[in-house]
Amino acid sequence: MSELSANERLRERVLRTIAGQEVYCDWEGFLWDPDDWNEELAVAFAAESGIAELSEEQWQVIHFVRDYYEKNLRAPLNKELRKGTGLSLLTLDAMFPEGLRLGARKVAGLPNPKVCT
Amino acid sequence: MKKIKLTINGREKEVIADDNMVLLDLLRDDLKLTGAKQSCDRKGQCGACTVIVNKKATLSCLTKVSRLEGAKVITVEGLGTSENPHLLQKAFCLAGAIQCGFCTPGMIMAAKALLDENLNPTDEEIKYALRRNLCRCTGYKKIIEAVQLAASFMRGEINPDDITPKPTDPPRGVSHIRPSAMAKACGTANFTADIDMPGAAEIAMVLSPYAHAEIKGIDFSEAEKVHGWIGGMTAKDIKGTNRIKMAVEDRPLLCEDKVHCLGAPVAIIVAETRAQALEAAEKVKVEYNILPTLSSPEEAMAEGAPRVHPDIPNICFEQPLIKGDIESGWKEATTVVEDHFTTQIVHQAPLEPENSVAFMEGEGEDAELVVIGRSINIHLHKANIQDALGFDSVRYEEAYSGGNFGQKLEISSEGFTAAAALHFNRAVRYTPSLYESMLISSKRHAYDMKFKIGANADGKIVALDMDLVADNGAYNSAGHKFILRALHMLTSAYYVPNIHVASKLVYTNNPYGSAARGAGPPQVHFALESAVEMLAKKCGIDPLEFRRRNSLKTGQTKATGHVVVDVWPFPEQCEDMKPLWERAKKERDAAQNGTVKRGIGLGAAAFGIGFPGDQASSAVEIGEDDIVTIYAAAADPGEGTDSMMTQLAGKVLGLPLDRIRAQLRSTGNTSPAGPASGSRVTLMIGGATVDALQKLRKAMDEAGGKTFKALTDAGKPTRCIGKRNTVDSAPLDPKTGQGPSPETDVMSIQLAEVEVDTTTGEVKIVKMSSTVDSGPIINPNNFTGQMEGGMDMGVGYALREIYVAGETKDWRTLKFPTFKTSFDSEVVTRETPRKEGTLGSTGVGEMAMLSTAPAVINAIEDACGARITELPATPERVLAALKAAGKA
Asked: For this structure, is B83 an active site residue?
């Protein structure tokens, strides 16, 4: 890590152009403002994580996570996710290369779980 | 062993006790009477374990059970219950004497012993009777008032019912009893160590005895032979990142190949009992290769210095600040003050040790790792644990928490319990000693500040230059944030057009720095307010008038170039302070006598709240029982968050307080809301809650009723969510330090009146006074409690406290404030509504100590001519400064 990047990595957010849209993300790639989310961004975030095309099942998970967040302002617990989608944790986790907590959350536009403001 | 018969809370008991067993352990471990607390490693230093034995207040941690044959013991549980409390318990609640509540049972028992003997005590008699009891939160003033109030109840002069606010009383501006206060007064509020977990395994930690060393090997073979051994863990056993990441991933949960500071965690040992775990930990052999210790930023910045973290330079963050044209500022300046100020590393010193428990709940895919501890940011700490351990299903619950003062912004013990519970699939408990608690927790950063400030012929500050070096200690964590906070608030209450700052954050092998009440600004305020006082005197202007003259005005800019849009009632603060200042001058002039010199000094502060990028969320819900519940992750380690939340709800909904409750402690039923730090809880989490409450109120108004049935009959929601985001989120420019600052500010001026013994260098605080304005006051007792406790902490920072790793081991070596060091204080309030406030209100918890230290230091100089530039102002330093000033 160079000195510049050590300094830069401590900055709060970065303006990115994703799917033709200018949005702020944090340094781990999570949307800064969850209200900026839309499906085009989800497709772009998914592509960045190695998912060439989102399957129907993946969309089902994304929409469940998203809907849950909008009602509760937090991510669903794993047991809630399992119950809500009818899928096992193993299956759910395998659906996103960066895992359920980081991958699915990021694609669904939820804030970084490590937001510490 | 010995068979002993004694009476505890009126019930006869027969116990067979080991000769060394102390009463505290009998009460807590065997009888599950956990009202008496343990803080000081059973050294008799804190009084939290005080009970009454044969009518005398007794430190149960020092009392051998074997000597209690026939004794009559009363614990706080024997005094009263929440339904039928003792008058002392009522008085403590009503007087606002309970903040975190960890010291409360001990205080109440010591007070009972006093009042049983003397129903008309003087304040001095109360101080003497309670002299062995420590409190970090209150500054002791309200505790003395509570004992006096209880005495007046017992004398029949006041009926408690006549002064107890009713649920239907106005929700704002009234000192309603905190929802949690009575449980704390009765000893039934469960702090982490009080949680009953039969069969739980116990943890002991292997901590590094060196500040900087490579780990060459860890050998459990001898430890495994200890009876009760369950297992040992090293970094290799952790499946996740093994890093506790705030902003930088540099702090390992367990050290891998290197230790970076004294007490760094090396291995977790788990055994059936605590004694067995400790014995096994002693037998773990760790082979170290000792490396050179970098004990100061100067050493760490020297050419050729080894790196603390091989992949990151020791200077790990730099932030300049350039505003206006500093050269033209110096040309305009006709009076200049220049000095070099340093502040010390300080332990935040919450009274409760860093206790934690963890266990697995459920089975299979439903298995959840439940961690209970002392977090002030449960959702972040849950995420930290998830990452570090590589395990997603985690729930974090905050227990009742014995103080904070910033220390609990960082994970400490809960990382160890979580790792062990998951690895061994066992319920585990970690009850570290006080010394261990000090070693494993963060500290206040030490700052080194070369400071120069100049004023023009009109007495207006026109230029400020600072070269700041902060000792980050072993880990950055979020150290850069505390540099940025200091820069945001660099010019405090003043308008300064031309500024130049260079700042550096530097790794060393010292304890790692993090949040500590005020976190950054108190250090810089020490330099600023010392220099402002010196500049005022050099200009020949009264220091209060000088401050008023230099007040920032709405529409002007802070150090960061941020234009202030909210109100700025600092000149009014100066007017409020004027009569206090004039009185203090007269009393000082009248008091000059012999070698003990009286002096007065001022310190001002403006403290920004609502930082750019801050976010919080909350939910409220009305149940079928028509009770409205607030669900918000708003930690309450003593400030009174439960009061604030419920009283705001009463105000918005127009409901009596007995129809409102708050659930603030679990990630299982709340959403992320950020930490209980930065004085942001009222503004941000309170703001999000008010947003949710206003939606519920709208639904109630539209439904034409405030009941569950009215809402559901009208098809209206019974649950509403709320958010509070600050407007700006851009960071400061990395080259100029210009950018948006916090949305609003609270401000105060503090006046210190001191006596300096010029023969010994001892400084006595005669009185601290503060004018303060943070908007409308929600709960006056909570508000003044923060101010009084903050000033007490600030005085400790000014005069006594310094943390030296390996030397500061307990409350005595920390120089914890006591009844003996407590002082008279006065708080003058003003309530200017803030445009950005939560119903106009903001927070006050940190501003309370921001300018205490410079006020005290300025008063010392006023008294005897000794200018202290290095905190704390110990007697030795005062004598040296006297000598340097030619006044010795």
From this structure: no
